[in-house]
Amino acid sequence: MEKPNWALLFGNNADISLGERARVLNEINQIGSLTFKIYRNEEGWMAKCQEVNGIIAGGTNPQPTSVEIESQIRDAIFAAFDVKTNVDKESPYFTYQESEPEKLPSFSTITN
Length: 112
Prior knowledge:
Elements: H1 18-31, E1 36-41, E2 44-49, E3 56-59, H2 66-80
Antiparallel strand pairs: 1-2, 2-3
């Protein structure tokens, strides 16, 4: 049997409050732990939680890095435990604005 890999659940994610972290860790402690079995084939990979049915992660890369696996598993855990994040911050990278449905831009094909 392979030696298991360990990963931090919250990493350096400052968007998750201490209270939310405590809530999620308490729920996981009641379960005991979360271990994932990784399945790989030529079409990609899948990680399935052994303790909680329905926590599944995966991707189409047949040779994922440990960072990719951990990221996808973390996202699946966050979804399963409904982890709330503090995303009220503005992004320094992009902005967006809501538009009225009738004012949607129309797209046309440009031909030469």
